[in-house]
Amino acid sequence: MSPTSTAMGPRRLLDAIGEALDGEREPKLALYVHVPFCSSKCHFCDWVTDIPVSRLRSTGEERSPYVKALCDQIRFYGPQLTRLGYRPEVMYWGGGTPTRLTGAEMTAVHRALDEAFDLSGLRQWSVETTPNDLDPATLDVMRGLGVSRVSVGVQSLNPYQLRKAGRAHSREQALAALPMLRRAGIDEFNVDLISSFPGEARESFEETLRTVLTLDPPHVSVYPYRATPRTVMAMQLDRALTEAQDRHSMIDAYELAMDVLGEAGYHEYCHGYWVREARHEDQDGNYKYDLAGDKIGFGSGAESIIGHHLLWNENSKYAQYLLAPRDFTHAHRFTTDEPDRLTAPIGGALMTREGVDYARFRRLTGLDFADVRATPYVTRWFDLLERCGGRFVETGHSLRLERSSIHRAYITHLAHTMAHGLAPERA
Fold first, then answer.
1. Which of 37, 102, 153, 378 is 20 to 30 Å from 355 at the Cα level?
2. pLDDT given for residue 128 in this prediction
3. What DSSP character marks residue 325?
């Protein structure tokens, strides 16, 4: 079987991870738990394209086979990875919407994690949610389990835009969510916003941003809209039922966010991530984009980068995951023959303060960055970034984009890829 096989069994995979460690003591690890359920199928979300609405909105008994499979996967891999020396530093529950789980389901998954790993070294445990899936009882359970940070998908406060985006929550629910978190004793939280929705006026986005800031969130994320193929919004754009923002409008909206957030005392520590104080930074995001170490993802749709391998489960293979949760749909060892599999770690690192650290890149992937950079695929990608306005700064140990050029290069590149389908960006 080739090292890029898509059918690597659990035992062989664990052997390969052990070989990649090469005697390293206490290697770093991030935990990701994927919860593939939501209350609605948002029109911009690329994760839900392959998921039937009936499964996405599963409740009660319909969800129990998934929770059981998830716990089985955790209990199998956790002790094996612990034996290899891994100790988790950060944990993130994403989706989907993890808070769709009941308190009992959350507790069962956490119990499996706590039994399988040494969680005593966790610096941060984040959970994603939406305003309509928050209530005091759920927050009490989360707080009792040890959740330290919550990321709230607000996206917009414009009622028309929320309906257009397929969101299940209202403006009123979004505005009530943040005080609810504080009353529950969760002071670390993030508000997700999307700029440049198709057809949205600049004034609408500004009103959302300024209103959110009146609630004094410790962290704000601003993501320029990306038209991903087969999402409802992308199909509406293809059919000219709505109109995409042009590159200049997208840059203008993001620079508006930069100005408003800067005036309010926030600084951007990674493209799109804003805080006033460093202690409020997303530690999982820092870990991932800084190439700090390996990550194991549990659940259908989860991705992992561990032992020089990229692993993931396809959303469309949900039934297969329930039957064989210890298997990954795909398991690829990183090679320079398939540089496109490295676009997420490279693209993410380029959005950070430090850029691609060569030593960390080699530890994570098993490859020399110089060899990857020399491939035609990455050469074309970096040439495109420079044509989009990116200015590279290289030292003896790293490559980064000049900070003042990141947002224009990223958005111009994003607009180009939406129009031409060429090259990657941060996942």
1. 153
2. 97
3. T
Does residue 315 register a pLDDT over 90? no
Q: Is residue 413 in a domain?
A: no
* Angle, helix 358-365 to helix 343-350, in steps of 10 degrees: 160
The pLDDT tens digits for 95-143 are 999 999 999 999 999 999 999 999 999 999 999 999 999 999 999 999 9
Taking alpha carbons only, the member of 394, 373, 36, 411 closest to residue 246 is 411
Report the CATH number at residue 14: 3.80.30.20
Residue 2 has pLDDT above 80, yes or no: no
Q: Report the C-alpha dihedral over residues 33, 38, 42, 48, rounded to 10 degrees.
A: 50
- Whether 380 is in a domain gets the answer no
Please give the residue range of the domain that contains residue 254. 10-288
Percent residues over pLDDT 90 in the chain: 83
Distances (CA, A) of 146 to 143, 166, 324: 5, 31, 29
**Which of 153, 221, 147 lies closest to 187 in space, CA to CA?**
147
- Spatial CA neighbour of 178 closest among 212, 144, 223: 212
Q: What is the rounded average pLDDT of the residues 403-412? A: 94
Cα separation of 367 and 374, whole Å?
12
